[in-house]
Amino acid sequence: MSDFTVRAAGAGDYAELRGVFAGAMMFEPGADEFGPRMFEPERALVVTDGAEIVGTTRALTRDLSVPGAVVPAAHVTGVGVKATHRRRGIMAELISRQLREVPEAIAVLWASESGIYGRFGYAAAAWGLSYEIDLHRVGPSSVKARPGEISELPAEGAIKELAPLLLALQERRPGVSGRSDLKWQQHLEDKPDERGGKTARQILVHRDETGTIDGYALWRGKMHWTATGPANEVHLEELVALTPRAYQTLWQHLLTLDLAGTLEFGFAAIDEPLQQLVTTPTALNRRVSESLWVRVTDVPRALEQRRYAAAVDLVLDITDDLIPANTGRFHLTTGETVSCKPTESPADLTVSVTELGAIYLGGRQLAEFATTGRVTEQTPGALTQATAAFGWPTAPVSLEIF
Ligand SMILES: CC(C)(COP(=O)(O)OP(=O)(O)OC[C@H]1O[C@@H](n2cnc3c(N)ncnc32)[C@H](O)[C@@H]1OP(=O)(O)O)[C@@H](O)C(=O)NCCC(=O)NCCS
Fold first, then answer.
1. Do both 204 and 99 map to the same domain?
2. Is 21 known to be catalytic?
3. Whose CA is closest to atom 15 on ligand 1?
4. Does 198 reside within a domain?
């Protein structure tokens, strides 16, 4: 790494920086309408070899729902190192510096590979569930939508109808990233040459008795016939439902589309209740994977900005190899307000910043880490108390890879 230079990116670096990332991920950069408009050069770092950029990382300014709050979170993206410069410490330098510099109390990312980010104190904090539903076997229940309850929405003008639902979801579930108007535009972009044989995106909405939209689904179809008949594919991209009725009827509609054989969906929460709606849950073909990774960059601020499912009054002894200010004992108390302050009092629990990231969204249990010795209980009962407090009734979900 000593042969190279790390520097903040400039506004003019975007195309080269994107080229490095695209090369590392093996996709063709192509036309990119939104990337340059969303680029925050002051939040990007590059490593150069002479005049050439050989490594990059970026952060996007977005908010994230966490237990009981919506908070700023550095959304880390665009991590890539040229294949010619791999395994010389470039990424390590970029990620370490980025984590020390981000102003937010937490950083989040989706990892291309599980083995990369744990060494920097990131931990998978949300499990994602994906479905590959066999529609011939699944046997959905017989909810019947009344006329007008489910309809299609034209893409034009859709953002102002859908955006409030995402905000409402953020109030209900941790792990959901906020979207600016520009981000919504990018999210709903639908280039014909990138559809891969699928239809244009369809926006399905559910309306309550008063005509108010309280759920939506974004999906595409793909025609597919086999020797034995139709087996069309339904590709569900996103489903947000604010009421049980919206949830039931949107799913019922999608599970019963004519000619369809399979439905794929990659962004369900681990506690997704879809199995309650169908008669053969095994036909959902569920698969669990890591989704959002969290890194706590400022312990007291991060612990004060979320809420807790149970009262807690504990001293946590925390270690952080990368950010010295996070190492030490902190007194966490909840009540009218949450307080997390440095203290000299003896510790009730010893834990590293990595485990704090894992439990931060309430989707993993602190007690899980006691089994492997990654959290140690100093005061009997402290682990039970902390596990209950850091948990949350709804599992986190991340709706998009950013
Ligand atoms: C992943 C990538 C950014 C790593 O960059 P790099 O500069 O080669 O990484 P470094 O040399 O700084 O490696 C630091 C450590 O991470 C390890 N590491 C690097 N890539 C890894 C991977 N894909 N899986 C597991 N460990 C990895 C290294 O072995 C090294 O470990 P060590 O400290 O024990 O020696 C680079 O290989 C790349 O661009 N890959 C393709 C694109 C990609 O996956 N980007 C991440 C998007 S989330």
1. no
2. no
3. 92
4. yes
What's the CA-to-centroid distance between 119 and ligand 1, angstroms? 10
Which atom of ligand 1 is the closest one to the Cα of 111? 48
Last residue of a domain, one of 41, 69, 104: 104
- What six digits make up the tokens of 5? 């230079």
Q: In this structure, are 263 and 304 located in the same domain?
A: no
Question: Where does ligand 1 bind, in terms of residues with CB under 6 Å?
Answer: 24-25, 79-81, 86-92, 111-113, 115-116
To the query of whether residue 117 is one of the catalytic residues in this protein, the response is yes
Residue ranges of the annotated binding site are 79-81, 87-92, 112-113
Domain membership flag for residue 122 = no
Q: Are residues 176 and 211 in the same domain?
A: yes
Nearest one of 11, 27, 76, 20 to 47, comparing CA atoms: 20
Task: Kindly give the distance from the C-alpha atom of residue 10 to the centroid of ligand 1, in angstroms, as a whole number.
Answer: 24
C-alpha distances in Å from residue 305, one per residue of 65, 105, 291 = 11, 9, 22
Digit-by-digit pLDDT tens for the chain (402 residues) are: 668 999 999 999 999 999 999 999 999 998 889 999 999 999 999 999 999 999 999 999 999 999 999 999 999 999 999 999 999 999 999 999 999 999 999 999 999 999 999 999 999 999 999 999 999 999 977 788 999 999 999 999 999 999 999 999 999 999 999 999 999 999 999 999 999 999 999 999 999 999 999 999 999 999 999 999 999 999 999 999 999 999 999 999 999 999 999 999 999 999 999 999 999 999 999 999 999 999 999 999 999 999 999 999 999 999 999 999 999 999 999 988 999 999 999 999 999 999 999 999 999 999 999 999 999 999 999 999 999 999 999 999 999 999
Among candidate residues 14, 117, 216, 247, the one labeled active-site is 117
Together in a domain, 10 and 54: yes
- Domain count of the fold of the chain: 3
- Which of 290, 306, 323 terminates a domain? The answer is 290
Numbered residues of the known binding site for acetyl-CoA:
79-81, 87-92, 112-113
- Do 64 and 160 share a domain, yes or no? no
Same domain for 367 and 220, yes or no, is no
**Residue 60, domain extent:** 5-104
2, 47, 60, 87: residue to mutate for ligand 1 pocket, most atoms within 8 A of CB: 87
Closest ligand 1 atom, CA of 81? 39
Dig out the tokens for 151 from the structure. Answer: 């309809």
CA dihedral 390, 394, 395, 399 (to 10 degrees): -130
Domain identity same for 257 and 176:
yes
**Ligand 1 center–CA 91 separation, angstroms:** 6
Q: Does residue 282 sit in the same domain as residue 316?
A: no
